[in-house]
Amino acid sequence: MKATIIHNPAAGQNDSGQRLRRIVADLESQGWRISMRETTPRMSAQKLAEQARDDGAQVVVAAGGDGTINGVVNGLVNSEVVLGILPTGTANVWAQESGLNNPSPLGDNLEHAARVLLEGNRLRLDLGKAGDRHFLLMAGIGLDGIVTERVDKRVKARFGALAYAWTAVREAFRYRGAVATIILDDREITRRIWLLTVSNSKNYARVPLATDASVTDGLLNVGIFEGSSWRRYLRHLVSVMLRRHKGEPNVEFHTAKQIEINTIPQLPVHVDAEPMGYTPMRFEVVPSALTVIVPSKSAEKLSKPLD
User: Fold this and answer.
1) What average pLDDT score do residues 113-127 get?
2) Is 185 domain-assigned?
3) Which domain, by its residues, includes 273?
4) Cβ–Cβ under 8 Å, residues 29 and 54
């Protein structure tokens, strides 16, 4: 097996480099031929993935967080190269979604994910696309787009997910929502939004948000959270944490293959927690765009709604 591991040394866990070397040795003992590459400010995960693809890699493993995975995804989309994941980042939402995290509370997530590379199933799944950027998990417009754009990278490097929480609290008191015109395939609606999500997967910041979403159904799930004050945001947040948001007033979900969103005022957009532009933005699903190694027990679950 010819493989390339693309490691983001700035992502999450400080000891990830040393632990990855042990994993590489184990994979090589199983017959894998591995090249290790590290991202730098001048060499992105996407560029490294494109190089690995062109050099004939059969598997490209993203060792980092969801942002690193997103870069590798964009380098492999619509190819036959298989994506593997070693979660070493801050949030690791895809690791939770796909079951890559160790099922034992005291177990090691990275070691478990390494075993999945050897023993897991290969699942061909859909991707979302925002503008010219593909995403595996989700895109967001509204408060979370603002938070992603304004979170201090130094604070994020030191405190991880808490940096997002603090930024969200700070920005929530300033943000007043926006009027959004939303075209879902051939249907147009207008709402005053606090948050708008476009999901390919179920989880959003480790919370099941788009519970009917599937990475294999050829559709994107659009969540619309209306409001114009921090009190509305707090109500939405509590309902999501309690998993009661789908029955709340001022919350609605739709499915579509193509979505166009314009807002007044203009709002920042993120994909997989990476800033990528501003509204207006066009989204679409790209069916069967990528093959990913997932735990055997998770392959069927990823295609089904949550109960």
Assistant:
1) 95
2) yes
3) 134-285
4) no
The mean-pLDDT minimum among 86-90, 131-135, 243-247 falls in 243-247
Residues 150 and 111 in one domain: no
Domain match, 142 and 264 both: yes
Cα dihedral sign, 48-51-55-60: positive
User: 34: part of which helix (H) or strand (E)?
Assistant: strand 33-38
Same domain? 172 vs 263: yes
Q: Tell whether 60 and 143 lie within a shared domain.
A: no
Q: Are residues 11 and 84 located together in one domain of the fold?
A: yes
Angle at CA 151, nearest 5°, toward 150 and 157? Answer: 150
Structure tokens at 211: 């519970």
N- to C-terminal Cα separation, the chain: 38
| Alpha-carbon distances, residue 282 vs 111, 130, 152, 161 (angstroms) | 38, 6, 27, 28
Indicate the pTM of the whole model.
0.88
Domain shared by 77 and 167, yes or no: no
Residue 124 lies in a domain: no
How confident is the model over 197-231, as pLDDT tens digits? 999 999 887 778 888 899 999 999 999 988 766 66
Q: Where are the alpha helices (DSSP H) in the chain?
A: 16-29, 45-54, 66-76, 93-98, 109-119, 143-150, 153-159, 161-172, 230-241
Task: Write out the two tokens for 200.
Answer: 């390919």
- Among 119, 70, 120, which residue's Cα sits nearest to residue 92? 70
For residue 138, the domain's CATH number is 2.60.200.40
Domain identity same for 157 and 103 = no
280: cis peptide before it, omega within 30°? yes
State the Cα angle at 211 between 79 and 239, rounded to 5°: 135
